[in-house]
Design a protein that fits this description.
CATH superfamily of the largest domain: Crotonobetainyl-coa:carnitine coa-transferase, domain 1
Distance between the termini: 33 Å
Structural class: alpha/beta
Largest sheet: 6 strands, parallel
Number of strands: 15
Number of domains: 2
Strand order of the largest sheet: 5-2-1-6-7-8
CATH architecture of the largest domain: 3-Layer(aba) Sandwich
Helix content: 25-40%
Strand content: 15-25%
CATH topology of the largest domain: Rossmann fold
Shape: elongated
C-alpha cells in the first residue's frame, strides 16, 4: 500500500457515510477507503461498533498488555474517520442528514425499515440528495417472506447449504457439517456490495441520479455456491460433504507425507502426467483408470492410495521442492504463523503496520492527548489520555498500477474524528459541547 505522498487515489473524489457495523458493511467501506474515499464511520456514543468488544484477542500496548480494544474491529475499519452520534435523537438525525447531503454513498445494515422511523431511509434521503447511492446490507433482503428476520453469517452458511458441503462425510471420523474458519459470507457480501456501489457510481455518470442497492447475505451465500450450485441445478443431484477432495477434479486434495500432509491440485492431464513422472510412476498416466480427469474422479480412492504410497516416504518440503519446477501445483498446509512467514507474503508486503492511539484506562476521561495527574503511593504521576498501540492488518490485495490503495489512517478509536467532522459541517466548540452534554455525540 502507498503512503500519503503519492498521487490521489482512485476514489479520492468520493465521500462515504458508513452507518454499518460488524463485518459485511464495514468490509465494503474499508475497500472504498483503501481506494481513497473519505469514509465517515458513525457509531453509538459510549459503545461503538459491536466488534470493538468482540475479544479476545485484544490489541496490546507497548508493554504487551491487553487493551480493551478487540482486534476484530481492526480487520475492516482502516482508513476511516470515526464519529459518535445518537441517531435516535432528532438532533442526531439532523446531523446525519447534513452529512448525507454532502455524501456520494451511504452504507447501512439496520433491519429492514429500521431507519425509516428516523427519517434516514433511502426515500427520505433521496429527497434531499438525489445523487446519493444508498446501500442496504441485510440478512435476507428487502423482499420475500424472510425480509423481517435478522441474519448472521453462520446462519447463512447453514441455510444456504454451504455447511452441508463443508467437512468430512458422516461415515468418516469427525464427519458432519462445518462452518468456514472465517465469516466468509460477510466478507463476500462486502466484496459484492463494493462492486455494486462502484457500478452505481458509474451509472450516475450517465443518469445524474443515485439509487438503492439491496444486498442480502443469503443471496450472496447462494451465489457463492458456484460450481456446486450449478451441479445441483442442472442434474438434481444434491452434493455431499467429501472433506478435502474436489467433486470434479482428481487428484485435487490433501495427501499424507512423512511429516504431515500436503495439498496437491492437479487440474488437467498434462499436470497429471508430469506428476506421475516426477514420482517415478509414469505408467500411472497411461493406466486406463486414470487416463482422463473424469476417470480419475471415478477411481479417486484407488489413485489416492497409490499416491500416498509414495508421498508418505518423504516430508512435505521435499515434494513441494520436487514439483515446483514441474508446473504441478503443490504446497504445504500452513497455519497462520506459517502463512505470514512465507517469503511471498513478505515480498508482496501483505502486512501493514500503523500506530493507533487507544484510550488509556488509567487516565481520567478527558480530551484526547491531554494529561491528568493521580496520586499513587504519595507520588504524583502524569497519565496520558491515550497510549500508542501498534496495529497490524492485511494489505489491500487491489494492486492498481496508477492509482493504488492508500494507507492514511489506523483503525480509529471511538469518536476520534467527531470534532473534526462536525467542524466541517460548520459547528463550533460551544455547539459541540452542548451536543455532548445531551449525549447526542
Amino acid at each position: 500500500m502507498t503512503h500519503p505522498s503519492t498521487p490521489p487515489a482512485a476514489l479520492s473524489h468520493l465521500k462515504v457515510l458508513d452507518l454499518s457495523r460488524v463485518l459485511a458493511g464495514p468490509w465494503a467501506t474499508q475497500m472504498l477507503a483503501d481506494l481513497g474515499a473519505d469514509v465517515i464511520k458513525v457509531e453509538r456514543p459510549g459503545a461503538g461498533d459491536d466488534t470493538r468488544s468482540w475479544g479476545p484477542p485484544f490489541l496490546q500496548d507497548a508493554d504487551g498488555n491487553n487493551t480493551d480494544q478487540a482486534t476484530y474491529f481492526t480487520a475492516c475499519n482502516r482508513n476511516k474517520r470515526a464519529i459518535t452520534l445518537d441517531i435516535a435523537q432528532p438532533e442526531g438525525q439532523a446531523l446525519i442528514k447534513q452529512l448525507a447531503v454532502q455524501s456520494d454513498v451511504l452504507v447501512e445494515n439496520f433491519k429492514v425499515g429500521g431507519l425509516k422511523a428516523y427519517g434516514l431511509d433511502f426515500e427520505s434521503l433521496k429527497a434531499i440528495n438525489p445523487r446519493l447511492i444508498y446501500c442496504s446490507v441485510t440478512g435476507f433482503g428487502h423482499s420475500g417472506p424472510y425480509a423481517e428476520r435478522a441474519g448472521y453469517d453462520l446462519m447463512m452458511q447453514a441455510m444456504s447449504g454451504l455447511m452441508s458441503i463443508t467437512g468430512h462425510a458422516d461415515s468418516q471420523p469427525g464427519g458432519g457439517p462445518l462452518r468456514m474458519g472465517v465469516a466468509l459470507i460477510d466478507v463476500l457480501t462486502g466484496l459484492y456490495a463494493c462492486s455494486a456501489i462502484l457500478a452505481a457510481v458509474e451509472a450516475r455518470h450517465h443518469t445524474g441520479c443515485g439509487q438503492h442497492i439491496d444486498m442480502a447475505l443469503l443471496d450472496v451465500a447462494m451465489a457463492a455456491l458456484a460450481n456446486q450450485a450449478a451441479g445441483y441445478l442442472n442434474t438434481g443431484k444434491v452434493p455431499q460433504r467429501q472433506g478435502n477432495t474436489h467433486p470434479s477434479l482428481a487428484p485435487y486434495q490433501t495427501l499424507a507425507t512423512l511429516d504431515g500432509q500436503m495439498l496437491l491440485a492437479v487440474g488437467n492431464n498434462g499436470q497429471f502426467a508430469r506428476l506421475c513422472a516426477a514420482l517415478g510412476q509414469s505408467g500411472w498416466a497411461a493406466d486406463a483408470r486414470f487416463a482422463s480427469n473424469t476417470l480419475r474422479v471415478q477411481h479417486r480412492a484407488e489413485l489416492a492410495a497409490l499416491l500416498e504410497g509414495v508421498t508418505c516416504s518423504q516430508p512435505t518440503a521435499h515434494w513441494v521442492t520436487l514439483l515446483e519446477d514441474k508446473a504441478v501445483p503443490c504446497g504445504p498446509i500452513n497455519d497462520l504463523a506459517q502463512a505470514f512467514a512465507e517469503p511471498q507474503v513478505a515480498a508482496r508486503e501483505l502486512v501493514v503496520t500503523q500506530t493507533s492511539y487507544q484510550p488509556n484506562r488509567d487516565a481520567a476521561p478527558v480530551g484526547q492527548m491531554q494529561t491528568v495527574t493521580r496520586f499513587e503511593a504519595n507520588q504524583t504521576k502524569v497519565q496520558p489520555a491515550t497510549v500508542s498501540t501498534v496495529v497490524r492488518t492485511v494489505a489491500s490485495p487491489l494492486r492498481l498500477q496508477s492509482t493504488p490503495p492508500v494507507l492514511r489512517r489506523a483503525p480509529p478509536t471511538l469518536g476520534e474524528h467527531t470534532d473534526e467532522v462536525l467542524a466541517e459541517l460548520g459547528l463550533d466548540a460551544q455547539q459541540m459541547a452542548g451536543l455532548r452534554s445531551r449525549n447526542i455525540i
